[in-house]
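Lab channel / #folding
Pinned by the channel admin:
"Please post every new chain as: sequence first, then the structure tokens as a reply. Keep commentary short and put observations after the output so the thread stays searchable."

First post following the new format, from NK:
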Amino acid sequence: MTQIFMFLVIWWLTLFVVLPWGVRRTENADAGHDPGAPANPMLLKKALATTAIAAVIWGAAFIFFRVYGFSLLELIEKFGF
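Reply from TO:
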């Protein structure tokens, strides 16, 4: 359950990094539409990119904590956070 929660947190943080990629303003906005809204938000591509990037980050964290035996509590105690 912790791994799922960790992946979801990484996914949402990554989404906020990916969202601005390739954003272009609408040139001639219709009346009542925000002129700063993106012309083509490409949300499906961004969701797929977010999932791929989050999977790589989560995999690195999984290897770091599970395979090599590090624990978050040990790191906090060692560095005094």
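NK: The chain has one domain: 2-79.
TO: also worth noting, The helical segments are 2-18, 43-67, 72-79.
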